[in-house]
Specification:
The structure holds two protein chains of two kinds.
Chain A (H helix, E strand, L loop, with lengths): L6 H7 L2 H42 L5 H10 L5 H18 L5 H24 L2 H31 L6 H64 L1
Helix pairs in contact in A: 1-7, 2-6, 2-7, 4-5, 4-7, 5-7, 6-7
Chain B lengths: L1 H28 L9 E2 L17 H4 L8 H5 L1 H13 L5 H40 L1 H19 L13 E7 L5 E8 L4 H14 L8 H8 L1 E6 L7
Parallel strand pairs in B: 1-4
Antiparallel strand pairs in B: 2-3, 2-4
Helix pairs in contact in B: 6-7, 6-8
Classes of the chains: A mainly alpha, B alpha+beta.
Chain lengths: ~230, ~230
């Protein structure tokens, strides 16, 4: 196609700085897509695990049995760690002699909150990166564009006869940087919004679940203390 | 560690595949010019060389026999041998020889005529089948010739033009045939020549274009024109 310059020629003709900007944006785009896919698979898996666990939890199984079952597993997923953390602490405290109901419950709650926080961190991993790419890569692209246009106008100043044809390639090549910035930013922003909404929904479920576990443990502790 | 790597391999591969697809799409479809294959070239009339030597006769005669009277088909062998004989021994029996030569000459003329006739028929047939095969292409081709002719007519030869110079122009038309843009895409190396070619298109201002919009869109909305005048000085 000798009639028109291709986009790859534009890129190869661009100045070094613009090329560096483009390379950064391309890298950002690849990495952010990688994060998007990774988060997507991860959150889908977590969602499935939560569904399965809650189903199992409410199937009328005895909590001790469930706990023993989970102890046997080598890797626990998110919601399981919350339950195991709370239940372990509860057992440990209630076995101590003379422990008060309130202090047992507070300990169990604290343990679950720790697990919850850790889980939240795990869910939100990489989202900050997506947010950064989404908000900065248009500016990075714009910087490349402004730089490219600046140069092409500066070279125009040296010409005696300025024609559109003498600036157009420079501007076109500079605009490639903006296009790349937007190309990187748009999926990142969409991914960020979508995933943070899902993380939030999951966190709500975790919190509700930990409250439910608290109330069950509370009931159990009261029963045990009453027997003593 | 292994788990972490495994967790990211698939996403990484997917991300790379996605970008590869994007780049490939750009490579194929970035410039609309990629689709421009309709280059208007100088009018070239294809000439079929008719070899009218008696020696060549047996071969070309092969198809026509069905259409032509039989007797002529059988003639070739004796005839082909005779001219050399006539030249080798000119001495004996002058008047009989002359008579035979005249007879031969007459037959030869006849044969040449029929040969030319069949060759012409063949060509006609070929042409009509070509037209039947690609109406649209043929229509476009005829308009292309018209456009090229018009450009050449509007061209004023710069003094520095030399034989073999050619410039490729990108011409954009609107459906009325008016020229809206013309640019030199491949220079001849001579600025004056390029300018003159561009000016010729501008001066032509309006071309005859087919009324059928699909032919126009495909061939004449934007097209490359290879300007290569034949009558340049050496």
């Amino acid at each position: 196609m000798p009639e028109q310059i291709s986009i790859f020629e534009l890129i190869s003709n661009a100045s070094l700085l613009v090329q560096v900007v483009m390379a950064m944006l391309a890298l950002a785009s690849v990495v952010s897509w990688m994060m998007i896919f990774q988060r997507w698979f991860f959150l889908r898996r977590v969602q499935r695990e939560v569904d399965e666990f809650e189903h199992h939890f409410w199937s009328g199984i005895d909590l001790r049995e469930l706990y023993a079952e989970l102890e046997g597993e080598e890797a626990l997923n998110g919601i399981e760690t919350i339950f195991v953390g709370g239940f372990t602490e509860f057992n440990r405290l209630s076995e101590q002699f003379g422990a008060e109901l309130d202090s047992i419950m507070q300990g169990a709650q604290r343990a679950m909150r720790v697990a919850l926080t850790r889980e939240e961190q795990r869910l939100e991993q990489h989202l900050a990166f997506l947010a950064t790419v989404g908000s900065t890569s248009p500016y990075v692209g714009l910087f490349g564009t402004v730089w490219g246009i600046m140069n092409s106008f500066r070279s125009l100043a040296n010409m005696s006869q300025a024609t559109l044809a003498s600036v157009a390639p420079g501007i076109s090549e500079a605009l490639v940087a903006t296009a790349m910035g937007l190309f990187a930013a748009i999926p990142a922003v969409i991914g960020y919004n979508r995933f943070s909404a899902r993380v939030e929904a999951l966190m709500k479920r975790y919190e509700a679940f930990s409250d439910e576990v608290t109330s069950i443990l509370h009931r159990a502790a009261q029963a045990r203390l009453g027997r003593q | 560690m292994g788990w972490v790597i495994r967790q990211y391999t698939l996403p990484l591969l997917l991300a790379i595949a996605l970008h590869a697809v994007a780049v490939a799409a750009l490579y194929r479809g970035f410039s609309p010019e990629a689709a421009i294959s309709n280059v208007i070239k100088p009018v070239i009339v294809r000439s079929h060389l008719l070899v009218l030597e008696p020696e060549a006769k047996p071969k070309p005669k092969a198809p026509p026999p069905k259409a032509r009277p039989k007797p002529e088909v059988k003639e070739p062998e004796p005839e082909t041998k005779s001219p050399p004989r006539a030249e080798v021994k000119p001495e004996p029996k002058v008047d009989q020889e002359a008579l035979r030569a005249r007879l031969e000459e007459a037959r030869r003329q006849e044969r040449l005529r029929t040969m030319a006739q069949t060759a012409f028929d063949d060509l006609l047939e070929m042409e009509s089948s070509e037209i039947a095969a690609g109406d649209a292409e043929a229509v476009a081709q005829s308009y292309r010739y018209g456009i090229y002719e018009r450009v050449v007519n509007n061209w004023s030869r710069p003094p520095s033009a030399r034989k073999g110079m050619q410039a490729k122009l990108l011409v954009e038309l609107v459906p009325t045939g008016d020229v809206v843009a013309v640019t030199v895409t491949e220079s001849s190396g001579n600025a004056a020549f390029d300018r003159s070619a561009e000016a010729a298109v501008r001066r032509a201002r309006k071309f005859e274009v087919p009324r059928e919009s699909d032919i126009f869109e495909r061939h004449f909305r934007r097209f490359a024109l290879l300007f290569k005048p034949e009558d340049l000085l050496r």
